[in-house]
């Protein structure tokens, strides 16, 4: 079996993040800090999350956010908070993934003839369409590193779609984007969902003629 | 380390495990069930996407190569997180030849032969038939769309008590209202009453010989928040071992045991089926739905009701036709997947950029209330193969809960791909007719295909070359070890599998009781069927 890019094996509360296919094996404590050695690593992952679910720039010279839409996206929903949440188990892989992403972005720019400004990390310097193209390449079936990138994609997506690092009731009450953008209904006052009005209450098709007495197909 | 002992040791507390636990305990055997997940009941089932709520505590998501598996991880197994659609498998399924060119199922099993066992499980859970008045907006919309295309559509038999159901659609996190008939309401409380012991957070790693024909089962105990952390370990000797860890978790246990037990049958960890599963997502044109189907809610909307309901309630069975060739038969069932698991893989139709992430995908999410998900169950080719087992459990766990990377490789054959394509085309034809909706299948490029119905990875059969178990569910070459979970089901079923898994488990019990008696266990078969209770059984106080 291929080694997973980010796998957990635990002894004595130590987690070994096996990142063989990414060329890295790290031994870290579960609660190891700091996760990033510099801000640019964090900025790079913000740019990654923003490529998955794009958002509006948080401030005028926000470089991480490409600003291709005019409402909040994954970063505003807390993608970085989710990635560093111990529950996801990926924190230890973030700094190396960030560095690798920038290396890939540099190579991508060279291969496609793009000139990148060098005051920000290479991935951040890529225009949105190129960020998306690079992520498509990295996550494509057959890419030997795809496991690590897929995990980043999944959590970036989830950060926006369900904000799983925050209680859902709070997320809805505070008007965090995402679930509300989806049109997700709010719960009853006890925090539980109930839909008394749930159906058209009429026959809308004929049953299959061979349905058996148990209600199953023949 | 002290080694404990019991008569019957059961690995896993889903359908295969619970049914065996009840009958053997009720028959007088000392039964111990080891379950890797926590023991949760109604009050623990949260309506919350927060990591660490029941949604992740009770769930297992294992990404493989070409196929990702979803399953239960708690006492009650998949029954706690399932959607409770409980049809019987159509008769033609039992005559399938699949990839081996002759009947795959044991000669002793047909739909007719299985009906009495289906009846028993249906009485216990119980399974109920729905009226149109029970059908949710999404189910109704699917029925109306089928009808508009000249197709039939059936309310699906379910294990849901409609009088308690709030249509909250949180059933994947466990049912807070005990409306869903999980095993916590029937077989498990009855097994406990007869003295069965259930130990949560006990993950079995392997089986070895204990002498005198007995087996030794080795387990780790797991931290109740961080499942990556083992808090201890132990062993229990038993005269009979029943492996029921689910089709994604049974093979690694047996593969890991090969070193101590000796060679496993060739079919252990092979012939895996994803039940031919495939998901399609439609975005309904609300105006067209009102015009074409004449549907209207009291609030004036035609639909906008994706969030409302209780999972799958209506299916089209027009292509479950024994007259059609193998691989051309499939069912199409309406379904709900919550955001997160249910949004990531949906694709944008005619995307100019990436189809499953990015700007256009975000726009698609804005229409979420008008989504309709259609679940296809086709005939695959049993092409899944498990690689070497991970060091523990069934995956390298990545997150504290839920997410792991597993050894399954699934490379769909042309038969499977053709089946998926045909079923996709049919859904598209029905839902895009007259501009009712736009439809796209979920992408398989991210985590491969996606199945909530893992099957066949340790299957029954008459042919030792292509089946790991005989038709009594005994592991070939290892007398006294039985497998009663979804891994025993030989092929994809074209419908939801839980009732068939359960019926096969019921059918296997008399043989297991006989084997236990042969091994000196004082146990009889024939206890009355359990009576369902109204409150899910909680963990007894220590
Ligand atoms: C979201 C979802 C919806 C579903 N909806 C439906 C539906 O509507 N209709 C239907 O028919 N089917 C449905 N299913 C499928 C159904 O739940 C399964 O087919 C069924 O539960 C399988 O039964 P089983 O006995 O094979 O295993 P499971 O029910 O999966 O039980 C296996 C148990 O073993 C435990 N286990 C695993 N490894 C170990 C170990 N090493 N040691 C100890 N314990 C272990 C697991 O935690 C689990 O509790 C659904 C599944 C999911 C995930």
From TrEMBL, chain B:
<keyword id="KW-0443">Lipid metabolism</keyword>
<dbReference type="Pfam" id="PF05199">
    <property type="entry name" value="GMC_oxred_C"/>
</dbReference>
<keyword id="KW-1207">Sterol metabolism</keyword>
<dbReference type="InterPro" id="IPR007867">
    <property type="entry name" value="GMC_OxRtase_C"/>
</dbReference>
<dbReference type="GO" id="GO:0008203">
    <property type="term" value="P:cholesterol metabolic process"/>
</dbReference>
<dbReference type="GO" id="GO:0050660">
    <property type="term" value="F:flavin adenine dinucleotide binding"/>
</dbReference>
<protein>
    <recommendedName>
        <fullName>Cholesterol oxidase</fullName>
        <ecNumber>1.1.3.6</ecNumber>
        <ecNumber>5.3.3.1</ecNumber>
    </recommendedName>
</protein>
<feature type="domain" description="Glucose-methanol-choline oxidoreductase C-terminal">
    <location>
        <begin position="409"/>
        <end position="505"/>
    </location>
</feature>
<dbReference type="Pfam" id="PF00732">
    <property type="entry name" value="GMC_oxred_N"/>
</dbReference>
<keyword id="KW-0413">Isomerase</keyword>
<feature type="domain" description="FAD dependent oxidoreductase">
    <location>
        <begin position="7"/>
        <end position="41"/>
    </location>
</feature>
<dbReference type="InterPro" id="IPR036188">
    <property type="entry name" value="FAD/NAD-bd_sf"/>
</dbReference>
<keyword id="KW-0274">FAD</keyword>
<feature type="domain" description="Glucose-methanol-choline oxidoreductase N-terminal">
    <location>
        <begin position="66"/>
        <end position="270"/>
    </location>
</feature>
<keyword id="KW-0560">Oxidoreductase</keyword>
<dbReference type="InterPro" id="IPR000172">
    <property type="entry name" value="GMC_OxRdtase_N"/>
</dbReference>
<keyword id="KW-0153">Cholesterol metabolism</keyword>
<keyword id="KW-0285">Flavoprotein</keyword>
<dbReference type="Pfam" id="PF01266">
    <property type="entry name" value="DAO"/>
</dbReference>
<dbReference type="InterPro" id="IPR052542">
    <property type="entry name" value="Cholesterol_Oxidase"/>
</dbReference>
<comment type="pathway">
    <text>Steroid metabolism; cholesterol degradation.</text>
</comment>
<dbReference type="InterPro" id="IPR006076">
    <property type="entry name" value="FAD-dep_OxRdtase"/>
</dbReference>
<keyword id="KW-0753">Steroid metabolism</keyword>
<dbReference type="GO" id="GO:0004769">
    <property type="term" value="F:steroid Delta-isomerase activity"/>
</dbReference>
<comment type="similarity">
    <text>Belongs to the GMC oxidoreductase family.</text>
</comment>
<dbReference type="GO" id="GO:0016995">
    <property type="term" value="F:cholesterol oxidase activity"/>
</dbReference>
């Amino acid at each position: 079996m291929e080694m997973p890019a980010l796998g957990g094996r635990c002894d004595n509360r130590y987690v070994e993040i096996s990142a063989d296919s990414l060329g890295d094996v790290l031994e870290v404590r579960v609660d190891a800090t700091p996760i990033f050695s510099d801000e640019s690593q964090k900025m790079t992952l913000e740019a990654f999350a923003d490529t998955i679910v794009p958002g509006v720039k948080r401030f005028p010279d926000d470089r991480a956010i490409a600003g291709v839409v005019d409402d909040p996206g994954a970063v505003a929903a807390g993608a970085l908070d989710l990635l560093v949440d111990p529950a996801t188990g990926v924190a230890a892989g973030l700094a190396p993934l960030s560095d690798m992403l920038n290396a890939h972005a540099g190579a991508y720019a060279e291969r496609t003839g793009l000139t990148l400004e060098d005051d920000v990390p290479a991935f951040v310097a890529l225009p949105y369409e190129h960020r998306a193209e690079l992520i498509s390449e990295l996550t494509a079936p057959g890419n030997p590193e795809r496991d690590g990138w897929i995990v980043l994609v999944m959590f970036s997506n989830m950060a926006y779609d369900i904000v799983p690092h925050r209680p859902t009731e709070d997320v809805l009450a505070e008007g965090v984007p995402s679930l509300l953008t989806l049109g997700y209904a709010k719960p009853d006052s006890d925090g539980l969902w109930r839909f008394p009005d749930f159906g058209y209450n009429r026959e809308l098709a004929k049953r299959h003629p061979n349905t058996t007495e148990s209600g199953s197909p023949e | 380390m002290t080694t404990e002992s019991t008569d019957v040791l059961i690995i896993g507390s889903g359908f295969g495990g619970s049914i065996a636990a009840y009958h053997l305990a009720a028959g007088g055997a000392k039964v111990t069930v080891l379950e890797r997940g926590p023991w949760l009941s109604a009050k623990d089932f949260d309506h919350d996407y927060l990591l660490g709520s029941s949604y992740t505590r009770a769930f297992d998501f294992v990404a493989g190569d070409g196929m990702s598996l979803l399953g239960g991880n708690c006492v009650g197994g998949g029954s706690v997180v399932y959607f409770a659609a409980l049809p019987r498998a159509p008769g033609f399924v039992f005559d399938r030849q699949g990839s081996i060119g002759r009947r795959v199922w044991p000669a002793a099993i047909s739909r007719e032969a299985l009906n009495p066992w289906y009846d028993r499980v249906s009485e216990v859970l119980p399974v109920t038939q729905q009226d149109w008045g029970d059908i949710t907006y999404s189910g109704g919309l699917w029925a109306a769309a089928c009808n508009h295309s000249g197709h039939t559509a059936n309310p699906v038999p379910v294990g849901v008590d409609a009088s308690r159901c709030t249509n909250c659609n949180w059933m994947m996190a466990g049912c807070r209202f005990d409306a869903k008939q999980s095993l916590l309401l029937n077989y498990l409380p009855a097994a406990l009453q007869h003295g069965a012991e259930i130990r949560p957070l006990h993950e079995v790693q392997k089986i070895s010989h204990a002498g005198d024909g007995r087996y030794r089962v080795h387990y780790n105990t797991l931290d109740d928040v961080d499942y990556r952390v083992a808090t201890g370990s132990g062993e229990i000797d038993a005269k009979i071992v029943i492996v029921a860890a689910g089709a994604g978790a049974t093979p690694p246990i047996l593969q890991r045991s090969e070193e101590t037990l000796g060679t496993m049958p060739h079919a252990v960890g092979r012939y895996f089926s994803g039940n031919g599963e495939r998901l399609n997502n439609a975005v309904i044109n609300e105006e067209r739905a009102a015009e074409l189907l004449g549907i209207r809610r009291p609030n004036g909307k035609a639909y906008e009701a994706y969030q409302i309901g209780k999972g799958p309630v209506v299916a089209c069975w027009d292509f479950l036709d024994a007259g059609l060739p193998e691989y051309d038969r499939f069912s199409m069932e309406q379904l709900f997947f919550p955001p997160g698991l249910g949004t990531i893989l949906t694709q944008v139709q005619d995307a100019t950029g990436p189809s499953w992430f990015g700007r256009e995908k975000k726009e698609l999410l804005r229409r979420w209330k008008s989504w309709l998900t259609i679940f296809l169950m086709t005939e695959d080719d049993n092409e899944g193969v498990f690689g070497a087992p991970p060091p523990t459990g069934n995956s390298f766990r990545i997150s504290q809960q839920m997410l792991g990377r597993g050894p399954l490789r699934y490379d769909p054959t042309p038969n499977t791909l053709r089946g998926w394509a045909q079923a996709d085309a049919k859904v598209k034809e029905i839902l895009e007719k007259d501009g009712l909706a736009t439809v796209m299948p979920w992408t398989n490029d991210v985590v491969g295909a996606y199945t909530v119905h893992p099957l066949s990875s340790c299957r029954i059969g008459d042919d030792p070359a292509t089946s790991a178990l005989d038709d009594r569910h005994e592991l070939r070459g290892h007398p006294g070890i039985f497998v009663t979970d979804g891994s025993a089901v030989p092929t994809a079923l074209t419908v939801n599998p839980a009732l068939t898994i359960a019926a096969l488990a019921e059918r296997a019990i008399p043989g297991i009781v006989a084997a236990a008696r042969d091994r000196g266990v004082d146990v009889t078969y024939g206890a009355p069927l359990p009576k369902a209770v109204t409150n899910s059984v909680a963990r007894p106080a220590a």
